[in-house]
């Protein structure tokens, strides 16, 4: 399998920044190009007046322009990374839109970041990365941000002496 085109989903979070940096590093090693994609949804609930649909289209166009500027900044901040970079902004649910863009550009690999939520947060918010992975027709690499470094004085094992640890275990 040859990887020449890498698509990276971004939502402008630390998790997606980590995914972008990982994709760029991989692209450098493989001599590949990277395309960033940001997706968004506009939801209109309970619109009964057809006259309101035109302003909604104007809002979508404004959102598109704003996101295009944000994506230009993402690309511009990495101009000197050593790999070809471009971006796409797409309206639609992230799983479907990311996979559609991957198909359109012929991406060999999709890279997405994950916040690593578990438990109730995962149940309530779901996992965009997981949804993209489930719908993908190509390889997907999921990247998690590195945990913050643990300072030496934060280690509980160094806070307690052995006898105190033993007392803690017994009680």
SSE map:
Blueprint: E1 5-9, H1 14-30, E2 33-40, H2 53-76, E3 85-91, H3 94-105, E4 109-113, H4 119-125, H5 128-135, E5 139-143, H6 156-159, H7 162-170
Parallel strand pairs: 1-2, 1-4, 2-3, 4-5
Helix pairs in contact: 3-5
What does this structure look like?
A five-stranded parallel β-sheet has the order 3-2-1-4-5, sandwiched between helices. It has helices spanning 14-30, 53-76, 94-105, 119-125, 128-135, 156-159, 162-170, and strands at 5-9, 33-40, 85-91, 109-113, 139-143. The chain is 47% helix and 18% strand. The model is unreliable at 121-125 and 164-171 (pLDDT under 50). The protein contains seven helices and five strands, in the order βαβαβαβααβαα. The chain has one domain (5-170): Rossmann fold, CATH 3.40.50. With 171 residues, the protein is an alpha/beta fold. α3 crosses α5.
Number of helices: 7
Strand order of the largest sheet: 3-2-1-4-5
Report the CATH superfamily: HUPs
Q: What's the SSE pattern?
A: EHEHEHEHHEHH
CATH class equals Alpha Beta
What is the domain total for the residues? Answer: 1
Approximate strand percentage: 15-25%
Structural class: alpha/beta
């Amino acid at each position: 399998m040859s990887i020449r085109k890498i698509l990276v989903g971004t939502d402008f979070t630390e998790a997606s920044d980590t995914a972008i940096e990982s994709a760029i590093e991989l692209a450098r090693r493989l001599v590949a190009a990277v395309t960033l994609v940001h997706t968004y949804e506009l939801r209109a609930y309970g619109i009964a007046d057809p006259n309101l649909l035109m302003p909604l289209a104007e809002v979508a166009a404004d959102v598109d322009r704003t996101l295009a500027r944000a994506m230009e900044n993402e690309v511009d901040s990495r101009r000197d990374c050593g790999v070809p970079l471009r971006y796409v902004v797409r309206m639609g649910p992230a799983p479907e839109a990311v996979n559609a863009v991957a198909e359109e550009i012929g991406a060999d690999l999709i890279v997405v970041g994950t916040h690593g939520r578990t438990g109730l947060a995962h149940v309530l918010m779901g996992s965009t990365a997981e949804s993209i992975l489930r719908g993908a027709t190509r390889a997907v690499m999921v990247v998690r941000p590195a945990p913050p470094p643990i300072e030496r004085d934060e280690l509980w094992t160094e806070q307690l002496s052995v006898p105190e640890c033993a007392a803690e275990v017994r009680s």
